[in-house]
Specification:
- The protein is an alpha/beta fold.
- It has two domains: 2-215, Rossmann fold (3-Layer(aba) Sandwich), CATH 3.40.50.300; 235-250 and 258-318, no CATH class.
- The protein has twelve helices and eleven strands.
- Strand 10 and strand 11 (301-304) form a beta hairpin.
- Helix 7 (147-159) packs parallel to helix 8 (177-194).
- The model has no long low-confidence stretch (mean pLDDT 92).
Length: 319
């Protein structure tokens, strides 16, 4: 229900010229939940995330209705009620200002505080995300931080003003496994501390299972499955979701080659009249190639598939 939503997205469309790369996305983000956007590269998930902040690239045309607590001016809310954790923390931080100065500037952009008070809050924020000797490290420049520390600093910047929503776009891609888990833990702790919702963009279904409440699986710019994480990942009803899960490595001895989804996602200018996934789907019929499926409710989630009721549990056997 839209009335229950903190962040509401209706019929989001993003185009570059004649090419529509995000096609009619509709979803809600509820208070204090972790909402994941997943899909292969090119699915449109990062563009969707940036549209929530009014940060789409130049040349993009955005349509639809996006509201945060009823406000449609998301650009005005950016930095205050909705904030961003980017994939590349180094490029997000100014190389010519100290980390502490940048955090203090973020504080003063929202609150009318003295420089000294803003600086103190900046040091507190760095301490909360686990930066050792925060007062000293606040005087350092981004290039003097490790990759994991930079990502922590960006999380501190995104949460220091206690926003309603934090949007994190692949926040751990450049980190090794140990630092990835550390950063995800810090992000979860800070989100809980300020009471924010999190929109988490990722390609990692393991991260989704461990950290998200609900998940939207995207393919070719469109929603293919949307629902509670356990329902979607334990018993997928969209062949694309099932194929992604079947392609994940499993524990135990490797007795045969890992199943993979054959083919590649279509480019926006190569979409036909039917389901975009049909050329790669082992369940596809003539109907799938001729007519795009509508979203329908199946087993407590929304699915865009003509054969949602027929997706077998051991989907990997079909690949």
């Amino acid at each position: 229900m839209r009335s229950e939503a903190l962040l509401s997205v209706r019929d989001l469309r993003i185009s570059f010229g004649e090419a529509e790369v995000v096609r009619g996305l509709t979803f809600d983000v509820r208070p204090r939940e972790v909402f994941a956007l997943v899909g292969e590269s090119g699915a449109g998930k990062s563009l969707t995330a940036r549209a929530l902040l009014g940060m789409v690239p130049r040349g993009a045309t955005v349509g639809g209705d996006l509201r945060l607590r009823g406000s449609a001016d998301l650009v005005a809310e950016r930095g205050r009620r909705i904030t961003f954790v980017p994939q590349d923390a180094l490029s997000a931080l100014s190389p010519v200002h100290t980390v502490g100065d940048q955090l203090a500037a973020a504080v003063r952009s929202v609150r009318r505080l003295s420089r000294a008070k803003a600086r103190a809050l900046a040091v507190e924020a760095l301490d909360r995300v686990g930066i050792p000797d925060a007062a000293r490290r606040a005087r350092a420049y981004p290039h003097e931080y490790s990759g994991g520390m930079r990502q922590r600093a960006v999380i501190a910047m995104a949460t220091v003003n206690e926003p309603d929503v934090v949007v994190a776009d692949e926040p751990t891609t450049a980190l090794d496994e140990e630092r990835r888990e550390q950063v995800l833990r810090v992000l979860a702790e800070q989100r809980e501390a300020v009471g924010a919702s999190l929109v988490l963009v990722t390609h990692d279904l393991g991260v989704v299972r461990a950290h998200a409440d609900r998940v939207l699986v995207m393919y070719a710019g469109r929603s293919t499955e949307l629902g509670p994480v356990r329902q979607v990942l334990d018993r997928p009803r969209a062949p694309y979701t099932a194929g992604l899960l079947a392609s994940l490595p499993r524990d135990g001895p490797r007795r045969r080659r890992l199943p993979v989804l054959l083919g590649t996602p279509p480019t926006p200018d190569a979409l036909g009249p039917g389901c975009a996934f049909a050329p790669r789907c082992p369940l596809a019929t003539n109907t799938c190639h001729d007519r795009e499926p509508d979203l329908q409710t199946v087993d407590g989630r929304l699915v865009a598939c003509h054969h949602a009721a027929d997706v077998p549990a051991p989907f990997r056997e079909l690949l």
